[in-house]
Specification:
Layout lengths: L15 H19 L4 H8 L3 H8 L7 H10 L10 H6 L7 H8 L1 E8 L10 H9 L7 H13 L2 H4 L5 E7 L10 H15 L4 E6 L13 E6 L5 E6 L2 E5 L2 H17 L3 H12 L4
Parallel strand pairs: 1-2, 2-3
Antiparallel strand pairs: 1-4, 4-5, 5-6
Length: 281
């Protein structure tokens, strides 16, 4: 009787970022040893702990951009470590978001519609930390801090030259939902007002009272990379999906344009946020 070979247990699918971090850690260690520095000596010179340097070399910790910059110069790495700064930084993002992050970094246009929470690009540090903290099942503190740092790093889009065109349409209920408490919400609303003063960014509020709504299917993001075609991005329940089909993306763009017409104007939206802060709504 022919025996059927036993099936091996499927192994856990490894995040590609794990090998990237191990590879970077090996490079980091080679340059440190070439410079004849111990982990403790390098840690002291760059202002980090010895355990942090060890964790980076072992691929267990993501090196911050400023550390990579310091180490590249100090270890005379000739730009080798610096060249990997961006890909190492992307490793901080969840795997499902990395493709979107890559497009976001070079986007000449970015448009987001939000229904449950303030869009990630607009979140304050306290608001972002709350969003990651309230997630179930609970995340470890180290993971939360890594995700907060990654989210705040995305703000670099606002400072890029030439400046991209940014717009955000936010449901009124989002501005009333006190994630993290009243003070966290207040700080978030104040930050929205500051962003609203940016000539390249527009924020619009969709009043709850509207009787006609073009985007009842939920939140989405539209991005246009430099020299490329516009793409869509959907995210829900810890998963994200890039949308590249032209007709589907065109449908998102049409609905987004109609929604902007149904929402308050950017000026009236900022006034609405101000009234929320003053407790007049």
């Amino acid at each position: 009787m022919t025996q059927i070979p036993e099936q091996a247990e499927p192994s856990r699918r490894e995040d590609p970022a794990d090998e990237l971090l191990r590879s970077f850690g090996r490079q980091f260690k080679i340059f440190r040893e070439r410079a004849r520095l111990t982990q403790a000596e390098l840690a002291k010179r760059v202002g980090y702990g010895e355990a942090q340097i060890a964790a980076i070399e072992q691929g267990r910790r993501i090196a911050r951009p400023e550390l990579i910059e310091k180490a590249d110069a100090l270890l005379d790495a000739s730009g080798v470590l610096l060249a990997r700064k961006q890909e190492v930084a992307r490793a901080r993002y969840p795997a499902f978001f990395r493709d979107a992050a890559r497009i976001e970094e070079e986007a000449v246009e970015f448009h987001a519609y939000a229904v449950m929470a303030v869009p990630g690009l607009l979140q304050t540090e306290e608001y972002a930390r709350t969003m990651f903290t309230v997630w179930r099942p609970r995340r470890h503190e180290a993971e939360i801090e890594q995700m907060v740092a990654a989210r705040l790093a995305r703000r670099a889009l606002f400072d890029r030259k030439p400046a991209p065109t940014l717009s955000f349409v936010i449901e009124e209920a989002v501005l009333q939902r006190p994630f993290g408490g009243v003070q966290v919400l207040r700080g978030q609303l104040e930050h929205l007002l500051l962003v609203g003063d940016n000539p390249n960014a527009e924020i619009q509020v969709v009043p709850t009272r509207v009787t006609d709504h073009a985007c009842v299917d939920g939140a989405f993001t539209l991005m246009t990379p430099q020299g490329g075609e516009q793409v869509g991005y959907l995210e829900s329940q810890g998963n994200g999906r890039m949308i590249t089909d032209r007709e589907t993306v065109r449908g998102f763009a049409v609905r987004y344009g109609i929604l902007r017409a149904q929402a308050l104007s950017p000026r009236d939206s900022l006034r609405h946020i101000e009234k929320s802060l003053q407790g007049e709504l």
